[in-house]
Amino acid sequence: MKTSVFSVCGMCSARCPIRVEVHDGRVTWIEGNPYVPGMEGSLCARGSAGVALLYDFERLQYPMIRTGPRGSGQFKRVSWDEAFNYIAESVKKAQAQYGNKTVALLDRGAGLFGEMQRLIVRGLGSPNYFNHDDLCRKNVDLAYQSLLGYARPEVGYDWANTRHIVLYGRNAFEALGVREANNIMKALENGANLTYIDVRVSKTATKATKYLQIRPGTDYALNLALIHVILKESLFDRDFVDRFIIGLPELENFIKPYTPEWAEKQTGIPEYEIISLARQLSTDKPRVILYPGWFAARYMDAFYFAQSVIILNALLGSIEQKGGLILAKTPKEVGAKGLNSLLEKIPAPQEKRVEAEEGKGFLYDGAGHILHLYRAIKKGEPYPVKALFVVRYDPFAGIPHKDIEEILNGLDLLVTIDVNYSTTSWYADVVLPNSTYLERSDILGMQRGAKPAFIMRKQAVKPIYDTKARWEIVKGILAASGAGEYMPYETIEDIWNYQLEGTGVKIEDFDKTGQVALCKDAKMYSRDELKFKTPSGKVEILSTKMAEREVPYFLEPITPAKPNIEEGEFRLVFGRMAVHTHVRTLNNKYLNEIIPENELWINDKIAAQMGIKNGDWVEVSSGDFSGKIKAKVTPFIHPETVFMYRGFENEVPWKTRSYGKGLNEGRLLKGAFDRMAYGSHTGALFENFVKVKKA
Ligand SMILES: Nc1nc2c(c(=O)[nH]1)N[C@H]1C(S)=C(S)[C@@H](COP(=O)(O)OP(=O)(O)OC[C@H]3O[C@@H](n4cnc5c(=O)[nH]c(N)nc54)[C@H](O)[C@@H]3O)O[C@H]1N2
Ligand SMILES: Nc1nc2c(c(=O)[nH]1)N[C@H]1C(S)=C(S)[C@@H](COP(=O)(O)OP(=O)(O)OC[C@H]3O[C@@H](n4cnc5c(=O)[nH]c(N)nc54)[C@H](O)[C@@H]3O)O[C@H]1N2
Ligand code: SF4
Ligand SMILES: [Mo]
């Protein structure tokens, strides 16, 4: 028998809507949901390779408890009840000694379906919920929140109608979200300009109308100069600025020294290019999108950089504007009712998360700061965190071994919930296997935007191994811990019905396309109606949030340190490749076959001086770690920088296809996890120098 199921891809966090074909209980085909604009049947390589994840023998198949020393990879198979009881006992012991808040959960991300795992920490009475955002998008999030009062996922982009897109190292055609890439492609077909700024010529650079090579870590300087020109030449959208911006005189005063001439020295981008970009953006305004990006934990000034991008959009009047930035509408704003929250049924703990105990000078929001969590585990400050759950995240795959050891030394319990044998699972005390996204249903999600919608991830086939859906795992942990009342549901339908209560939407309504829109047409506000979600209702350059947290409104730019190239020292930068998702797909049978290992990009002139030829093995080192990788000698990278694709060199022998192949950039990040970005306390992963020599 042949059936078709609408669901949501789980091969990366873009969560594209998909249609899955099932023949006699086997998944035979996956494609983009044909009913969703921007998808129209298309899928990326990783999305198609979901089939290889589903039928992979080298993934987690049953719950396990560690039997040998941590990191020995010795585990025994246990029943689900044994695993749940073991966890409950260990948590109880830790909480008896250190209090409820000693439990923390480190999540990949809140995302569409993320409310579920939050029930674990809250159900166990702890405030300590953390996610990976600090190493990814948090700066953008905090910048939007402080300036507009909106969170990052609440700001969308009207690519189709834009005239000019500016991407700062946002390698959109390779670090993919299918919809976004398709929509940017459509914008280009419609004649939009694409200005792309990067230290190297990425895939996206090759599609740009203008590529500007920038000195690493100086995008903030570039933006200050753009703001300078826009203010000096009155190139801004006066109507928008007069109505909405609070803090223009202070901005004008701050920006005075940052001329294009100054910025040329910082960035290496000629003064005339900067002036010309400012003027061109003004001509194209208000239909412009300066994109603050996705992965924004690169440099120490990343929060202020993200703010500068949003300020540029505001000056150019592109916010809540056709062809610009579009604010998400709540269900209420479109006359509908939202999903009922599972989390809000559990009383919020009164105690404070670790970073909230640590005074002022930085911003935070709904999820804690990961670097503060690491510190709490390692040093017991501001209080000890002894039990850690890690969900859909592999933090140990991207950090130096010394940091892993220090974290492990601080923990009494480490539990992972994963589909693969992750690096973190290798060190865990209990490993709980999650069913893959094709084998499970999740809670309903809310797709935010100008036309909000409910979206369903629906099981396509039954689990092949002894794995469970996320909600079943959460239920098991809470029940064993005496907190079963917070998950009283017996089936996913029970949960969906509770979520949908009072919304007028029924489970069957998802059958047709997998989604239910909450209004007919996208809702946009006119400037007369527009009110931002800041306390003043305006774009607050003098941000109330920042004032409350004693975070300075402006950051004076700091010239990035220069590596000693003559000594073989370079700044290490890294990024995503189209056919892999971070570390999780390295062992995927199809994707591993396409690209099994990475290489090190190095500037051709410098390589020649060092006697390194294309394809030569080089040794890269940082602190006491060093590893070997093949050199890719190219003119298309800034001389101060070496680049590699992220996530290679899987260290878990269980995954035989990818074991030991390539080099892991995370091991080269000595000290990176002690470095907190200005104002946001996020990571700054590109502030690291490595030594390179011919092997
Ligand atoms: N060194 C270094 N560190 C980085 C980065 C970097 O480039 N280099 N990038 C940062 C950024 S931007 C990000 S987003 C993060 C990403 O880092 P991670 O989130 O760790 O990377 P992923 O490879 O996406 O895998 C996360 C884990 O989720 C598991 N997983 C996959 N599907 C499922 C599922 O359905 N259920 C469950 N329970 N688990 C699943 C995978 O097996 C994997 O172990 O890393 C951040 N940290
Ligand atoms: N195929 C695929 N797609 C993905 C992912 C994946 O793992 N695989 N992951 C998803 C996730 S979680 C994220 S966060 C996004 C990340 O999306 P992006 O941020 O677009 O992706 P990265 O590949 O991390 O790109 C980093 C780029 O920054 C450049 N760069 C380095 N230093 C500088 C600098 O100083 N200035 C400028 N302007 N550029 C600089 C690097 O050369 C590199 O090209 O991708 C998402 N999409
Ligand atoms: S971008 Fe690719 S891997 Fe990511 S959700 Fe979409 S189809 Fe899946
Ligand atoms: Mo990310």
Write the topology of this structure:
Blueprint: E1 2-8, E2 17-23, E3 26-32, H1 45-48, H2 50-54, E4 64-66, E5 75-77, H3 80-98, E6 103-107, H4 115-123, E7 128-131, H5 138-148, E8 155-157, E9 164-168, H6 178-189, E10 193-198, E11 210-213, H7 219-232, H8 238-244, E12 245-246, H9 248-255, H10 260-267, H11 271-284, E13 288-291, H12 302-315, E14 325-327, H13 370-379, E15 387-391, H14 401-410, E16 413-418, H15 423-427, E17 430-433, E18 445-447, E19 453-455, H16 470-480, H17 492-500, E20 515-517, E21 539-540, H18 544-548, E22 569-575, H19 589-594, E23 599-603, H20 604-610, E24 617-622, E25 625-634, E26 641-645, E27 689-694
Parallel strand pairs: 6-7, 6-15, 9-10, 9-13, 10-11, 12-21, 15-16, 16-17, 22-26, 23-25
Antiparallel strand pairs: 1-2, 2-3, 4-5, 4-17, 8-14, 18-19, 19-20, 22-27, 23-26, 24-25, 24-27
Detailed description of the structure:
The radius of gyration is 25 Å and the shape is globular. The chain folds into four domains: 2-54, Single Sheet (N-terminal domain of TfIIb); 64-136 and 342-434 and 441-517, 3-Layer(aba) Sandwich (Rossmann fold), CATH 3.40.50.740; 151-327, Dimethylsulfoxide Reductase, domain 2 (3-Layer(aba) Sandwich); 565-694, Barwin-like endoglucanases (Beta Barrel). It is built from 20 helices and 27 strands. A seven-stranded mixed sheet has the order 5-4-17-16-15-6-7. The chain has a six-stranded mixed beta barrel with strand order 22-26-23-25-24-27. Strands 11-10-9-13 form a four-stranded parallel sheet. With 695 residues, the protein is α/β, with parallel strands linked by helices. 27% of the residues lie in helices and 18% in strands. Iron/sulfur cluster binds at residues 9, 11-12, 14-16, 43-44, 46-47, 176-178. Its main location: other. InterPro entries: Asp_de-COase-like_dom_sf, MoPterin_dinucl-bd_dom, Mopterin_OxRdtase, Mopterin_OxRdtase_4Fe-4S_dom, Mopterin_OxRdtase_prok_CS. This is Molybdopterin-dependent oxidoreductase. Its cofactor is [4Fe-4S] cluster. Keywords: 4Fe-4S, Iron, Iron-sulfur, Metal-binding, Oxidoreductase.
